[in-house]
């Protein structure tokens, strides 16, 4: 009801301004709880500010914590391991009218459910104790090939302690790198390298060639994909790359113009000692110039000694493919240094 005009002698209640100090103080007391946090604060805002997950870059994608559905505050997974275990008890009820056999069956179901819960807890504790929800610092500086190798040994993690498993991974990675280094050195030795410095230079040039070839293929593939013909152009680009690689291996003047083949021999000082025909030969059979010159020297010495009279006699002198030995022998025949 609307109050009329006040009569004389009645106490008038003065309307208080909404911005008066006393009213503001009372409203603040209602808004602020005992912990000093606003009671009317937006819960969504608080969750986003306090329970905020670490932001990952768009390239990294969702983290393993997000993919696993783990809630760090509740220390639970959603869904849990064996998430249907509770369905055993969903409609089970103990009644006074149950027979002894029915009661035993229900107790057995409870024991089975308890074991399933124990297994769920064991797996969750194992994940949290081993910190499997986050990237392993040991794998931070590993190559993709080495990380894939570590994944193969994850199955043995349950049989080792955390320290023992890390020692195992370090040993496996060390062995892998040693074997890879031995394989690279064997390849460099087959290419004619005799010192560690020459091998490192050869491997560096090889990696550079592979990177350049990969970038060239990616660039040509990208141009083909951007054209209006779509997938047909991609197929034609791959076909042209295959034809180019085949044409580079043909024994003709085309091989000397191949940029990839030039890169194969340009890293050796001995290249300047070869003729154009010899350079093409080294490119075609993938033979390093130092090894080619060494093979010529050994063959010439054996020919002059009378120990080598044909191609077959030279096969036992070198531990490489006989076809390459035959090509080098043919070059000596062209020079007039070997019998045909």
TrEMBL record:
Domain of life: Eukaryota
Residues covered by region (Disordered): 1-78, 213-232
Gene3D superfamilies: Winged helix-like DNA-binding domain superfamily/Winged helix DNA-binding domain (1.10.10.10)
Pfam families (UniProt xref): TADA2A-like_3rd (PF22941)
Boundaries of every SWIRM domain copy: 254-340
Biased composition range(s): Basic and acidic residues: 213-222
UniProt-recorded name of the protein: SWIRM domain-containing protein
Protein species of origin: Citrus sinensis
